[in-house]
Design goal:
This protein has 5 helices and no strands. The protein is mostly helical. It is elongated and about 45 Å long.
Length: 129
């Protein structure tokens, strides 16, 4: 499963590189941060850890958004793949627009939402169809 995502991401990275953008995606790092974001809701970590995780997840989402936008640009706008990628991009934009809130619990929930958006992007990046 991870190999397919990495292959498709590498293909999209190659397409982006041909357009003058060199984007490196750390799939294993993203998956690790997604797992950490799930744990945030079970046992609340220190606030500093949550904010550090949030910043990493924001960076992952921004990188994945560029890759997904490059994939979407190669698809027919009337295709299901294009519509799905646009939907996932909108979800990521919504998550990025929100802040962590006032307390530890809301910051952990926000980190979890960012992790879910990363997961959705990785799932869609598996295939460039």
């Amino acid at each position: 499963m991870h190999a397919k995502a990495s292959d498709s991401i590498a293909t999209a990275q190659g397409q982006a590189a041909s357009r003058g953008s060199s984007e490196e995606i750390d799939t294993l790092g993203i998956l690790q941060d997604i797992r950490h974001s799930r744990c945030c809701l079970t046992v609340l970590p220190p606030y500093a850890d949550v904010t550090a995780l949030e910043q990493r997840l924001r960076g992952h989402l921004q990188s994945l958004s560029r890759v997904m936008a490059a994939q979407a640009a190669t698809l027919d706008p009337a295709s299901m793949g294009y519509a799905t990628r646009r939907s996932v991009l909108c979800r990521a934009e919504r998550a990025l627009a929100q802040g962590p809130g006032d307390g530890l619990r809301s910051a952990a929930e926000h980190a979890h939402e960012l992790g879910q958006a990363c997961r959705a992007m990785l799932d869609r990046c598996r295939g460039a169809r």
